[in-house]
Design a protein that fits this description.
This protein has 182 residues and is α+β, with helices and mostly antiparallel strands. It contains 7 helices and 9 strands; from the N terminus they run αββαααβααβαβββββ. The strands form 2 sheets. The chain has a 7-stranded mixed sheet with strand order 4-3-9-8-7-6-5. A two-stranded antiparallel sheet has the order 1-2.
């Protein structure tokens, strides 16, 4: 009977957050207390690159095509995964210049879309200062891009960098005005 009581208490202490009402909460019990005395304690979760892109999209509507592309290429988990990376994120207007939107992006073959998206990601956390200190960047698809400054505007290839240093727990986003094509 004592073993059963400890087993139940262990379950209360170890139950993952999926069993609680909030997504970022976990159940914490104190040894010797009955399971009914367990309390829910919020656990802070830092936003990933994907979380930040979704939040920005909810606020501005600028990344709906990028998010749809990540979903279509099955890259959401890879971009949200632990490990630092820098994403050069094209706006919806950048995709529209290619005739693509959140719906039509699914017509792009998955291997082509994956290669294009990986051409927007650099391994490691690179601030704007780090980017500007580079002449070239090797992207995740193994191709390189060129960094330049013209008329006080920073560019990656021919794409202007519109906004820099949007921080996430697993990297940084720099917003760009054109889709980078490998």
């Amino acid at each position: 009977m004592k073993l059963m009581k400890w087993s139940l208490l262990s379950l209360v202490v170890l139950v993952p957050s999926a069993c609680s009402e909030g997504a970022n909460e976990s159940v914490v019990g104190v040894a010797g207390e009955a399971p009914a005395a367990a309390k829910v304690v919020p656990v802070a979760k830092s936003p990933t690159l994907v979380d930040v892109a979704i939040t920005v999209n909810e606020e501005t509507g600028e990344f709906s095509t990028l998010i749809a592309a990540l979903l279509a290429a099955d890259l959401v988990d890879a971009i949200a995964a632990p490990g630092q990376r820098t994403v050069f994120a094209p706006t919806d207007a950048a995709f529209a210049a290619l005739g693509l939107d959140a719906t039509s992006i699914e017509t792009v073959p998955t291997d082509v879309l994956t290669n294009i998206l990986l051409y927007h990601v650099v391994p490691g956390r690179r601030t704007a200062a780090d980017v500007l200190a580079s002449e070239r960047l090797r992207m995740l698809n193994r191709e390189t891009t060129r960094i330049s400054v013209r008329n006080d505007v920073a560019y990656i290839n021919a794409s202007a960098i519109l906004q820099t240093d949007v921080m996430a727990s697993n990297g940084i986003i720099h917003v760009i005005d054109a889709v980078l094509l490998p």
